[in-house]
Please model this.
Amino acid sequence: MYGFPLQPEQASTLSVEMDYLYYFLTALTIFFAGLIFATVFYFAIKYRRRDKDEVPPQYEGNLKLELTWTIIPSLICVLIFVWSAHVFMRASTPPPSATEIFVVGKQWMWKVQHPEGPREINTLHVPVHEPIKLTMTSEDVIHDFGVPAFRMKRDVVPGMYSTEWFEATKTGEFHLFCDQFCGMGHSHMVGTIVVLSHEDYARWLASQLNAKPMSVTGERLFGQLGCNECHTPEGKPGVPPLQGLYGTEVKLQNGKTVTADDAYLRESILGPEAIVGYPPNMPTYQGQMNEEEVLQLIAYIKSFGPPGERKATKQ
Amino acid sequence: MSAVAVEVEAPTMPEVHYLNADYGWRSWLFTTDHKRIAWLYLFAITGFFAVGGLMATLMRLNLVEPTGALMEPASYNKLFTAHGLIMIFFFLAPSIPTVLGNFLIPIMIGARDVAFPKLNLLSWYIFMLAGSVFMFSVIRGGVDTGWTLYTPLSTTYANGNVLSAAVGIFISGFSSILTGLNFMVTIHKMRAPRMTWFRLPLFIWALYATSVIFVLAMPVIAITLALIALERIFHVGIFDPALGGDPILFQHLFWFFGHPEVYILILPSMGVVSELVAAGCRKRVFGYSFVAFSSVSIAAISFMVWGHHMFLTGQSVYAGFVFSALSFAVAIPSAIKVFNWTATMHKASVSYDTPMLYAIGFIGLFTIGGLTGLFLASLGTDVHLHDTYFVVAHFHYVMVGGAIMGYLGGMHLWWPKMTGKLYPEAWARFACLLVFAGFNLTFGPQFILGYLGMPRRYAVYPAEFQVLNVMSSAGASILALGYLIPLIYFTWSAFKGPVAGPNPWGAKGLEWTIPSPPPTNNFDETPVVEEAYAYGPEEAHVG
Amino acid sequence: MGLRRLTLADGHDSAALVAHQFDDFEQQTQADTFGMWLFLATEVLFFGGLFCGYALYRNLYFEAFTAGSHLLKIKYGASYTVLLICSSLTMALGVRSAQLRRQTALTVYVVLTWIMGFAFVYVKLRYEWYGDYLEGLVPGLNFAPRGESLDMIHHFHATVPHVGLFFIFYFVMTGVHALHMVIGLGLLTTLLIFAKQGKVTKGNFLWVELVGLYWHFVDIVWIFLFPLLYLIGGRYV
Model:
């Protein structure tokens, strides 16, 4: 323990922005609370009851005063709203260049997969000064991936992908907490974020000897589960081509159009009848694979190439 | 008690009043007198407060050590779940409405009783049934989901007695609905002649707004809990993503009830504080209509802000903007109240009796609780503060610093009316001071803990948070003492306290025009209604 | 209101009917009526949560909810609707008879209302729900659609678990509604006893009006449930 810290370390680009907002709100709180306290104490002493039968002069109220203390706080609230919405928008929009890392929450541990292959439990190694986007889901209940030093936190909900991002500005080790109560081991669902310099990170990646890239593991699964029997590279009638699918617009049978993103692929694998873009011939894989394996399959499908190539492979 | 010491003629108790009008347990358990029903509730909620408080004490003791000084995480989880549910559904929500509200609403509006006395008694029995079912689930081993009962944890994964706990709360909802309905009808239809809406005491306005929330929010939690029970028994998949259900739907339904519920807890207390300030200053509350309408607008807006509990659940950023903006909107009427109470003290005759001390304490703590709410309504900072001790500190400042301070202040103001006896003033001032100091020491450090990142509901925590946690636990023991002392002197004074007389405070309002304790029918003849807070002729305007 | 003033002025001893907390009969009547309306407001919110959930899931699983709608037995749904509308009419006539102090007419209308309400509950349990049970359509008990039901689900490209969600809402919503019907039948029974004892025609008929309000409310809920569950899937095409 060193001294008496009043705020966690500022270790990400966002933490600085958020702290300014926090300082402003703290100053505002101290100012208004101080104003009220001072006024109340001043009145309480100055106008204390001096005689038990004393009756003070009576007022009805004052419209100008009422309007003043309605309008001024309203304006301050508008200011805070705009400022905080701006910060939130930044915190919720990962830059397109961000490196993607995948997180699966499970009672009571965090499982992390790097696209390059390394897998970690309750630890996340990341390079400094590089935007990282986390794509997260849960195997069971709702968890929450929070890192105070990055001022970053987002619920991890079963059945859907949530995302958050950060860019670390300091090397070192930082707390990772589960912030959403998730059952008996909730307070043990903690971990460490290890921020490394670029060289150290490269060294760490190289030291993960057995790690195969996620897309490679996904390719093996693709064969094991028999996906390749229908989803052949040449394409079969009635079977959606996977080449160049990722990121394109898919027209569903009910007329809606959706983007083939991670969530769409996940839904299509686990409950293919739920998203009806094609005749429902594919069996459901719900319960036959865990969320990590789903992510590996998606990584494999993504590895087929950018959306532009779809036209070439279609039909 | 200066008012008594100088009294020339010692005040006397009326020979027959509602407390001695009838004897025997039947006259209490089958009573339809709103004043006796208030006592039934008072005994019940004091018991629940003691149980919930004991749980809080154990939790704070456990947190003295980073690894947990007393118990396993499993037990700790059950404790905070039961603490939250008991305090919210079985103490705070009923506290002011069912005790002070039941006792005072008919008297303040000049009626002989509430509109439906039998229904009023029925509400108490439903409340007791609910409490019994809930306590049964606690004794059987408890619930480990947190008071928010989030799915799919509560429906699929939790091992505790979620079903019986949900049934208990489900039943308590009906008690609240019937109480709210009774109060609304009473306030609408039972007012004495010439008691117009704008002559009503502000306490009545606040309870009216509370009752609206009771009637409109409670059925939503009832049906939501019914769905939880159904899911728990049959596992049909309403909230289970593996079967196509949506766990977030539960949060929407829960918080649609849950946020208005927060105002059920604080609005009555605001009403009490208006009365405390008026009586303590012998002055008409400044800006009466603004204070009255702020209660109503708080109730209305409270139904539109539920999404601010869900900024981080993956709801759209734009939904977050809307809920954030509306949450700021609900802050304004609260601010208006604080400013008006403060302005009431200007050129007043401020007494230093315990009720006024509680009012001042309330204004201070509620101001902090309200302002720290801005941190959480603001999207940018909520990302960091959500589900940390900052939230814990914020809502305890509102609910304990606000709601319980108001409740205790109200109990001190109207205790002489309820019992006809005076409590020992010196002890009361001392206890008030202890509560204020203990409270701040308990929950003040938690703001810092929260900003440092300590998540709520942690049975064990990293060692660097220990200093602040020990401070908080130390404060909790002072706070516990501060709550124990009033229990003792109130009990003592009910039997041995000096006789109060009808109006020991020199306050205005219909309740001070009748004897203490009041007769069973409250008013022997139709009361003469003046405007609220008629302390004297209006003399000047603040310029 | 005209009727009420007439009955108050026509020689009945209204003071004996006023509970101690009220000043006069008028105040009591207003309080009771207002209380009933507030109770119905609570009920609206009670069903409201279910309607919201239904709307959300119907939006999420459109095909499944369409398929589920087609699996319901529309002839029952339609006949309930007719029954309940008729029972609302007889209830309204019963209220009018009470206001006009016509004891026999009141009894007849209340009995008619009761019979139609009972028919609703009986048919619902004995035929519709039991039929659903035999077909394996009750989630939590035996949800496993087969035969024609399964074909229907496939026809709409829906998944069985999602159709299960439709049936949960179907059973919870109609179940809560049926529970209200049963409570309504109990209220009608007490009303009959009161009428028999002459309490209504000689005394306060407000009780009849309040039961009537409740009965109409429960009917109106059905008027929303019927299209939402049975019709909305486009089966009239």
Chain B has one domain: 31-541.
